[in-house]
Amino acid sequence: MMPIGIYLHIPFCVKKCAYCDFVSYAGKEEIITPYFDALSQELAWYVQRHLFDDYRPLTLYVGGGTPSLTTPALVRFIQNTEKVWAFDTLQERTIEVNPGTITDSQLPQLRQAGFNRISIGVQSLHNRELEILGRIHTSQEAVSCFQAAREAGFENINLDLIFGIPTSDLASWQATLEQVICLNPEHLSLYNLTIEKETPFWVLQQQGKLVLPDEETQLAMYQTGITLLTQAGYEHYEISNFARPGCRSQHNQIYWRNEEYLGLGAGATSYIRGCRYTNTPAVEDYIVCATADHAPYPATVVTIEKLDFAATIGETIMMNLRLIEGIDLTAFSRRFGIALEEFHVNTLDKLYDLNLIERYKNHIRLTFRGVLLSNEVFQEFLL
């Protein structure tokens, strides 16, 4: 049986953050129960077509949105479906939570339901920055949430942080990092604030009312994050991710290795047998479509993309290069039956000359300059 990752998308939020362009909706709590019924229907579609006869689920990741907002319904869903994907054999079972929507009593429920990894959306430990982002929690609530997760028995905790927030500076970012290091989480994700089209932040930026730290400051923030975390014993293993030894995100590594995964829920994407399937992002439409009898793909799917050989190679290179160790040339040749140097010789030569990639042992990886210009490097392989 082939390994596969499972992703569940829970699109409900108390309030949509000003920078967020994910599939998420505020004020729709009344359809949480129908939504989980639809998730069960979509999962049943794959079960009835014997997907799990060929695939062995390796990881489960519940993201959003704010999954912790739906804790009772989510726990029931997990209990009712765990036998479908042999829940007890999953190596990693992650749930995202936000400090403003999870109670201390719910954290033990999630742990008892089988989740062994938790990802907390901290973002900042400065209240002014949290207000600007539109978060509904305070810095103290974020710390309390972490401590409560520890007390609930979570031994593998990730904290999400954002740098480059309006009004922030290098000193405030460094203070957040130092406080977080003292908490000693197993994993940290550091994301540069990106302004996505049609978000409230994008509108404000177009109006000249949103000013981010300049590029030099944002670069210094990223470098400071790398320095402080590696000095504290964290392994910088992916462009934005740091882990204690043995605590890398197994689920996200499936994406970075461009391996197969099944996405369930509104707006979720699956990558199975060379095809990418994307569900409708409209939550009401998803609920209606999930009950329809449809083939050869679920009625929830709105786009299908069949990746050819060249496109699959290009995406695999792009995703592998997100890992600090880069592309394993032996594994690449085994997977595709061709050496990377033969398939992309001109592109590789160009990137070598620009000092954006380097050969290290049996890997090709980004240089530090390449990490800073990673989007430009990735584009070379997707053209």
Automatic annotation (TrEMBL):
GO annotation, biological process: porphyrin-containing compound biosynthetic process
PROSITE patterns for the chain: RADICAL_SAM
Described purpose of this protein according to its UniProt entry: Probably acts as a heme chaperone, transferring heme to an unknown acceptor. Binds one molecule of heme per monomer, possibly covalently. Binds 1 [4Fe-4S] cluster. The cluster is coordinated with 3 cysteines and an exchangeable S-adenosyl-L-methionine.
Protein name, per record: Heme chaperone HemW
Family to which this protein belongs: Belongs to the anaerobic coproporphyrinogen-III oxidase family. HemW subfamily.
GO molecular function: 4 iron, 4 sulfur cluster binding; coproporphyrinogen oxidase activity; metal ion binding
Top-level lineage group: Bacteria
UniProt-listed InterPro entries: Aldolase_TIM, Coproporphyrinogen-III_oxidase, Elp3/MiaA/NifB-like_rSAM, HemN_C, HemW-like, rSAM, rSAM_sf
Keywords assigned by UniProt, alphabetized: 4Fe-4S, Chaperone, Cytoplasm, Heme, Iron, Iron-sulfur, Metal-binding, S-adenosyl-L-methionine
Every Radical SAM core domain range: 1-235
Record's subcellular location: Cytoplasm
GO cellular component, one term: cytoplasm
One Pfam family, short name: Radical_SAM
